[in-house]
């Protein structure tokens, strides 16, 4: 994530568990995808997507002037 940001990209990231938190925190836009309920409840401030179609819609909704690395 930080490498892509250093190149001038705006980074969107998605993950489903605790091991993804570092990546999600570093990204400019972050989403849970298919995360278990206990993880969604622990981090209610993160947008949560149910399925890849919903995640793709979330990525498409990102408005930015920069290049977005997904």
Defining key terms:
alpha/beta; 4-stranded parallel β-sheet; 23% strand; globular; 4 helices; 70 residues
Structure notes:
The chain is α/β, with parallel strands linked by helices and 70 residues long. Helices cover 37% and strands 23% of the residues. It contains four helices and four strands; from the N terminus they run H-E-H-E-H-E-H-E. It has helices spanning 2-6, 21-26, 37-42, 52-60; strands spanning 10-15, 29-33, 47-49, 68-69. The protein has a four-stranded parallel sheet. It is globular and about 35 Å long. The model has no long low-confidence stretch (mean pLDDT 90).
Set down the secondary structure blueprint.
Blueprint: H1 2-6, E1 10-15, H2 21-26, E2 29-33, H3 37-42, E3 47-49, H4 52-60, E4 68-69
Parallel strand pairs: 1-2, 1-4, 2-3
Task: Write a short abstract of this structure.
The protein is α/β, with parallel strands linked by helices and 70 residues long. 37% of the residues lie in helices and 23% in strands.
The proportion of residues forming helix, as a percent range, comes to 25-40%
What's the overall average pLDDT, rounded?
90
Which strands sit side by side, in order, in the main sheet?
Answer: 3-2-1-4
Structural class: alpha/beta
Largest sheet: 4 strands, parallel
Radius of gyration, CA atoms, in whole angstroms: 12 Å
What sequence of helices (H) and strands (E) makes up the elements? HEHEHEHE
